[in-house]
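Listing S7. Sequence submitted for prediction.
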Amino acid sequence: MIKTQFQKELVISATQSVDGSTNTKKDTLKVQSWLNLFAMNNPSAGTATGIDGNFGAATERALINYQKANSIRQTGICDQAVFDMLSKPIGDAFTKTVAGSDLRTLVVNVADQHLSCATIELVINGQSNCGPWVRAYMDGLEGTPQFWCMGFVQTIIDQACSQLNKDFRTLMPVTYSCDTIGTMGLHKGLLSRFSVVRNNPQLVKPGDIFLLQKTPNDWMHTGLITAIHQETFDTIEGNTNTDGSSNGNGVYKRVRNFRQSKLDVFSIEPLV
């Protein structure tokens, strides 16, 4: 893969514990982040705690609760073995082999794999668009200004390409900008405008990229098309929510009506 930030999200530099001599703020933030991500899917586990980089009594108790919920020794100490458990969702999303022998199938299945791992962002120090998932998709960047929908799309395509020993950069540059891909798609003849898509939905195939148009040369959101129906696309999108926001909190599977929304479509066919 070209986008390898996820590898850094799988490790801590040293054991983290209350008043530990090897504690680092960066590693404690990672531990606290995963405790909170676990809490989102297990709200009764008691693992939600502050994300401040300080491994104090609250973090220790949250970690003990996590260890109890997972039936492992309750030490309140996070070594690499415990962190491996905490960060397993991102490890599974990025490293499990995905079924499929062609790129379009792989793109859809990789996106499904990430979706199944409960990909949610965090708010840290008042900043949205934070956490290990965002950093993995955005090559280490995070924070409120870091809209990550295109980072998600390119990561999925990159991961799918890597199984076929292909380089997605032969199709597009590494970017976090919908406008960059939209403009390039127009220049290369790879972008079908929403009016064309409405008249010829058969042009669209699973694995293609939709770009939600704000104005003809300004796109505000993107995602991957996983299935095409008479009036709708099934999609998997990052940085959205159940309302279809262009700055939501996670990866969601959605249904978008391409006959009502201005969905331009970027074809990945040259990679296929």
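Caption to Listing S7: primary sequence and predicted structure tokens for the chain studied. The chain has a mean pLDDT of 97. The first strand starts at residue 122 and ends at 124.
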